[in-house]
Amino acid sequence: MESLRDIRQNIKAIRSTQQIMQTMKMISNARIRKAQEAMDNARPFAKKMLEMVADLKQEVLALPQETQDRESWASRLFVNKTGDENKIALVVITGDKGLCGSFNAVLLRAALAFLKENQGKEISVFCIGKKGKDFISRLRHKNIRIVYESVGIFPKVEYVHAELLGEAILKEYFEKNLSSVTLLYNDFKSMGSQRLAQTKILPFAVDTEIKTADEHEFLFEPGIKEIFKILVPRLIKANMFRVLLESQAANLAATMNAMDAASKNAGEIADALGVKLNKVRQTGITNEILDIVNGAEALNG
Q1: Tens digits of per-residue pLDDT, 141-162?
Q2: Could you give the residue ranges of the DSSP H alpha helices within the chain?
Q3: Do 181 and 173 meet the contact criterion of CB atoms below 8 Å apart?
Q4: What predicted TM-score, i.e. pTM, was given to this entire model?
């Protein structure tokens, strides 16, 4: 049976751990409000940028191809007929730390399933977050290579992080003649819910309505192709910024929920040990009383 000293030490250690968990919960709760505000502010701009590119889709695809055998720069962004089917890219956005429930585990399982599904292809991986970087690095597969990594940016994501990521994605997409770029991240739905999102970001999958003749009669200066080349990088970067903010908010919410649950569990364990402590102490007192009584009876014997 454990001694009273051992039980008291266990209770002290658990209470100390509970305080750490409560502190982490309070920190996440304070940060998530700013993260939600930034996320909500980024959503309308990213959505409007996507709508603008979607409006230009028909005009852009109507432009002549560069050559008969070579697809135009704009067409590759929407159709990508000439992309190498054996070359793809994966963007994985995880957290930098643990203690956030299943936040990272869900993403890593989805990333592993994607890599297995495309194991015969050359896969360029963009790792955002230390957990994802460490996981991909341990795979050591000849067809999988990390072309971009960014760690330690959460929970202070800035637009410059999205700008660097967007530029790296576009550069790899065109220089390596990739057929597609897939994004994996946790989408923020609510404080208690984060949803795994897997979406193809290149080529663009945008729906456009058939326009009337009047709607087509616009003059573009300096030209539709030039405008499109300006909009595309901004669209990629704006959406990457939105996704990073979504993932950041989801990570903070997951951490807050995990620390809340862990703190409650620690409290329950400490309470159970307190009951055990009282029982052991009561048993000790009872045994001492019995020893005294038995000793007295033996003396009176």
Answers
A1: 888 999 999 998 888 899 999 9
A2: 4-61, 73-78, 103-117, 130-139, 159-175, 213-216, 224-300
A3: yes
A4: 0.81
Q: Distance between CA atoms of 53 and 300, rounded to whole angstroms?
A: 102
Low-confidence ranges of the chain (pLDDT < 70): 1, 63-71, 206-224, 301
How do residues 229-271 score in pLDDT, each as one tens digit?
Answer: 788 888 889 899 999 999 999 999 888 888 888 888 888 888 8
Measured between alpha carbons, how far is residue 25 from residues 11, 99, 221, 240, 253 in Å? 21, 11, 52, 27, 9
Q: How far apart are CA 209 and CA 58, in angstroms?
A: 9
- Furthest-apart CA atoms within the chain: distance in Å: 119
Q: Is residue 171 within 8 Å of residue 126, measured between CB atoms?
A: no
161 vs 265: CA distance, rounded Å: 37
For the record, the structure tokens of 124 come out as 């360029």
